[in-house]
Amino acid sequence: MDRSTANLLLYTKAFCLQAEEEHRRGGPIAAMLAVMHAQDAVEFSLNALARDNRVAQQKSDTIESLRKRVNDQLKLAGKPALPLEPDVDFLTATRNKIKHSASQPSDPDAQRCLDIARRFLEAVFTDHFAVAFASFSLSDLVEDARIRRHLKDATAAAAAGRPNDAVLAAAKALNLAKPDRGIATTHEYTTILLTMGADIGKLQAVQSHLPLLIPIGDAEDNVGRTRTKPRRYTVMGIKEALSPSEVEWILNSVEELVLHFQSVGLLGAATPPTSTPEIEHIGDCIIE
Q1: Final residue of a structural domain among 107, 129, 151
Q2: Do 252 and 157 share a structural domain?
Q3: Same structural domain for residues 216 and 238?
Q4: Pair (41, 177) in one structural domain
Q5: Contact (Cβ atoms closer than 8 angstroms) between residue 288 and residue 150
Q6: Is the pLDDT of residue 104 over 80?
């Protein structure tokens, strides 16, 4: 699987989780948004299948026409057909009523749409990409074993409903991944990241949600020229409750940043910032 296909599957999963979260909010608007996101998830998975099976997409494509052309190509290639066709028709019809007629789905219909989307995606991920929907992440593409392990731990913790453990593991991964070549100031650090093409806005946004890993001990040698990463850190956590979709966004963003650093050949270690508003000490950790 290449990076572009992996990204499409990642967006697919994110839309599905967002749909489920919207539905949990309750109310007619939430039900409408949930169905729309569920349909978006199915559509992104079809885009991934089209790309993986070299089905040329056309500007005139509707979700129905794309699904038919992808399904025809899968059958020609001797691959499993798309699952749940009548059910996906129901999802698409429900979404079209919302989009074109502002029709509010009943709560049972909205729940049925979410169930259809998840079952469809679980089958597509397994049958056509050989990955499990629940555990899939970009971490599979990370070459560094330590960083990949922390990202996998983060995904597992998120799936188990442990957001604090998930973001802590993500912070460990990002801490190991960020390049640091003896940079003395924040300005110099930002400059080198910009020259590498890093998304500074995303990096700053992600770091604002992650626990701080404050190094214990001197991170420089006696003459201050070489920054070395200590193994032990004090962990400071931001006081906020993260929703499942927010945790998913944080983990996805960290994975994208790690892969960017990997793509330019600059996986390294950096000293995180040492202060932030409204922090709470939640213990120490060792990064190995």
Answers
A1: 129
A2: yes
A3: yes
A4: no
A5: no
A6: yes
Q: How many domains does the chain have?
A: 2
CATH number at residue 102: 1.20.120.330
- Both 209 and 122 in one domain: the answer is no
pTM: 0.63
Tell whether 121 and 142 lie within a shared domain: no
pLDDT in tens, 144-197: 888 888 898 988 888 888 888 888 888 888 877 776 544 444 444 455 455 545
